[in-house]
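Morning F.,

Quick status update on the modeling queue. The single chain you submitted on Monday has been processed. Sequence for confirmation:
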Amino acid sequence: MIKVVNVNKKYGDIEVLKNICFEIKKGTIYGFLGPNGAGKTTTMNILSGLIDFNSGGIYLDGKDFKKNKRELLRKVGYLPQNPVFYNYMNANEYLHFIGEIANMTEKNILKRTIEILDIVKLSASAKRKIGQYSGGMKQRLGIAVALFNKPEIVFLDEPTSALDPEGRMEILEFIKDLKSSGTTVFLSTHILSDVERVCDELSILDKGQILISDNLENLKNKYIQPIFDIEFEKNCLTLDKVLLGFKWVEKVSIVENKVSIYVNNLDIAKSELLKLLVQGENNILSYDLRKSNLEDIFIRLVNKNDNL
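C-alpha cells below.
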C-alpha cells in the first residue's frame, strides 16, 4: 500500500533521515520503532503530508505521493503524538468543526459523528466538555478525528506513551479492531511491548537509519539469542567479571541477586554454565532459559549501531 524508497530529510546541515526504505502492506498493523530522537515523528509528518522531504520517493497505492498529494491525502488519517483540542467544546461540536473543514455536508457530518463516536466508545460522553476528558478519552477522540474521513491508512504517533496501563490496553484493543475493519495502521512508538501485542510487521529506526524491516516472527527467529536467568541466595554483583572471560558469554546483566546471561553458543552454555556457577559459595535459587523478546533484539541492534 505504501512504499518508501531512499527518503532523505535534512534540517540545514543536520541529516534527520538517511535514505530510509520500507513497505507497508494493505490491512496490516505496521510498527515503527526507535528511541526518542530517532526520526520517527519526522517520518510520520512526511507520510501524513505535513512536511516535505529532500530526496527519494513515496508511493501510495502505486501513485507518486509528491505528484498526487492532494488526492492521496484523502486516504490518510493522522493522530499526532500530542493532539490538541478546543477544551471548551464537546466531542459533538469538535467533530462537527472537523467535518466543516473537510467540506462535508451537514447531513454527512451528523451521520459520521454518530458512527465514529460509537466506534471509539465516546457516545455516552459526546456532550461533555473535552477539557473534562481523561487522557485515554482524549486519545480516543484524537483517533476519531483521524478516522473521520474514513481513511484507508491511519498514522498513529506514540498513541499510548502518556497513558496509564488501563488506558494503554484500551487503545491497543482499539488498534486491533481497526485492523479487523480493514484499516491499515502505521504505529510509531518506543514502547516495545505494544508492538509485540498488536503489530504484524515492523521497522527499527535509529539515528535516522532503518536498521531492519521484517515481520515480528522472522525477526525473532533471525535474532534469537538464548538468555539464562538465574537467581542467587545472595548478591552476585561481581559475577560478570568471571563470566565475561568466556567467549561463549556475550553479555551479563546483574541486579542485586539476579543475573541474566546472554550467550552466543547454546550448546556450550548448557554444558558448562551450571557447572561453573555451582563451584561458588552462592546458592542458586532458580535457573531458567528464555529466548529473546523484542526488547532484547531492539537493544542488541541499537547498541550495534552505536559501534558502527
